[in-house]
From TrEMBL:
Gene: hisB
Name of the protein described by the UniProt record: Imidazoleglycerol-phosphate dehydratase
Coiled-coil ranges from the UniProt annotation: none
UniProt EC number: 4.2.1.19
Key words, A-Z: Amino-acid biosynthesis, Cytoplasm, Histidine biosynthesis, Lyase
NCBIfam families, A to Z: PRK00951.2-4
InterPro entries in alphabetical order: IGPD_sf, ImidazoleglycerolP_deHydtase, ImidazoleglycerP_deHydtase_CS, Ribosomal_Su5_D2-typ_SF
Family statement drawn from the similarity comment of this UniProt entry: Belongs to the imidazoleglycerol-phosphate dehydratase family.
Amino acid sequence: MREATVERATAETWVRLRLGLDGPTGGKVATGLPFLDHMLLQLQRHGRFLLEVEARGDLEVDVHHLVEDVGIALGMALKEALGDGVGLERYAEAFAPMDETLVLCVLDLSGRPHLEYRPEAWPVVGEAGGVNHYHLREFLRGLVNHGRLTLHLRLLSGREAHHVVEASFKALARALHRATRITGEGLPSTKGVL
Ligand SMILES: [Mn+2]
């Protein structure tokens, strides 16, 4: 069974995260930031993962550090859980609608970090529980840089922060589920390495 547990501590945050790609799903999520918990539970449910997250952060300063560092821990766990990548589906895309909002996420578990997401181009208004779509960028940067994947995120419609951020997590979850499946036998690369 592919899974990994990481623990990461800085002067700003402490995160312990367990990710399981196969087998049982669910797990307790408690970061101290309710909207982030709500998003991680979307990832867990719609990605059909085991995802346990326990975290503390300097929320008296801002939500920024905690959101970013949970993304980093998720990337670290993903990279470790994927192992050598033999048989990996590797590519996936997923749309997620939420009423008026529509988001597209396209992934390549390539071994090369690249994030294609421009929050300044997204006409989002407001925030959700202290979290906005610029914080989403920090989460995704952490995930991409440490999970070593290519991630494109597009907003096709919608403006309301809660729907936009949540639909983004749902699209990410669905794409991550599919990209992490074992569907073949060899390494899915002509280069011979991911
Ligand atoms: Mn919601």
